[in-house]
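Subject: Predicted fold for MFS family permease, 453 residues

User T.R. writes:
Posting the sequence so we have a shared reference for the thread.
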Amino acid sequence: MQKATRKPGLGRDFNRFWLGSLASNLGDGMMVIALPLVAAFLTNDPLLVSGLIAARFLPFLLFGLAAGVIVDRVDRVRLMIGTNLIRAVVLVALAGFIATGQATIWVLYAVMFTVMTCEVFYDLAGRALMPALAPAGTIDRANGRVEGGRTVTQDFAGGPLAGFLFVVFAFLPIAVNAGAYALGALVLLGLPLAVRRAPGHDDSGQDSAAKRPSPLADLREGFGFVFRGSSLGTILLFNLALNAAFTALSAVMVLLAQNHFGVPAALYGVFLGSSAVGALLGATTVGLLVARLGRFRLEVVFFTVTGLCFIGFGLAPNAYAAVAAWVLLGFVITASNIVMLGAIQLIVPGRQLGRVMSFVQVSGAAFGPIAALSAGFLGRVELYYVPLASGVLVLVSLALAVPALRRVVTEADRVEAAQIAAQVEPSAQAEPSEEAEQAEPSGQAEQAEPSEK
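User M.O. replies:
I've generated the structure tokens; pasting them so everyone works from the same file.
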């Protein structure tokens, strides 16, 4: 009975994957700080510096759907290793340009675009791998471990480390960043072949090139699953609204912090980064929260609190109350997103997971520019109207999405229960068989005696 109640470990393969992710996340955290610092070192033009943001998010819109098709067709681990190595090589070249004084803002654009294109493929492949790596009943805990590691390495370690190294030599954070990506690639080399490829309907993982449908047909199949074969279409629309709310708030955050809450410029980074504390808490406790509340109740409660946190942030009387709302927002949105990610990974067939996750990824970025511009216009009227509008958008969208949310998490619960039962049955059958083996010799002996007579 003690064995039945003990939480299963995440396993050696997951731990290897997690270590590779930690190294890559450290590189991500360093890059998003180091490249803007280098850009500001090269030019004082705000428009040219802000162009890095466009170069950072453009690959998600350009290649997101195509990446999903590719992830479902190739060795996912090999794809992650290859993209990390490409990122390392590109950053080594950039470090050389900076060290020799040959770097330009246009080189930075090209590097940012290339590195983030690799990020699109890396992230999708990693999320598609998770169901094969996490033992039955641990998907939420596994995703929480990955997200918690990302928060620590990217938000707490990568950014400050990049800033410190930049003060020493401008090229140094870029070179260390390249090393982090290379290390992440090397760690992933040990993952077994069994988890690398997207399984087919028969879970054989073998696709005949002659029978393989076209990439466009693959894309249509994924689209059909999301919008006709499941309730995920509504969930994606809710995800779109949720990301639009965050983008809108982010677009005017610096003005809210400084003009509305009176945060000094020197403390803006601390103010903005405080949500990472809540995010880390949500990532590390999500498994326990799901066990206590259940998926559906947690999602409804936490997404509701998300909307209320936006509103509370806008109505906060001072910076301290705003930080409290911001930390709580980081906690509830991280936990609820991890649970939703796990539910999608459970209900989507493995051979389609890359494509479905690409729809999730693209839907999150699709209306970002529109949301940012809308926030700018609304902020001209009154800055605190932006978080208020974001909160109302989240709450209204959630009310419309609750039925679909119930269907998705109920199906995820059913799939997970079936996986756990399938894992328990062989061990339950093994115990009687051992007893039978012990009893078999005496029984055979008793039957043998009459036959000899």
